[in-house]
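# nightly structure sweep
# worker-07 picked up a monomer target from the shared queue
# config: single-sequence mode, recycle default, output format = structure tokens
# input follows
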Amino acid sequence: MLTNLTLVNTQITSNTIQLIAGNTTGTATFCIYPNIEPFKSWNNISWVKSSGTGTITCTIKRVSDGSVIDTNIANPKDLSAEPLALEYIDFAITLTQVSGNNPILNSIQLILQGGF
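# output follows
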């Protein structure tokens, strides 16, 4: 699987993704290409955030044309019914401060299916 990570107003600290000091919102965008032969399906995405912190939301977009597939998705999200194919997909994770509490993204999991 090919994966690129782009951070905007966020940083990696102690193996987590956090807002850079002084920012109230930021994004961590995972651009993913499921280089699995043969590729069958995108199954699920989920993440873990620190409890009691700000909010974390996710938007799914096609890289080819920038079209939004889904916004503010559930956690976890079943991707099997989404119109996703063997293509580059952006998972844009937005971290937003709430009442002075900064969100911390501890982990993210993406499950794909390949094989015959």
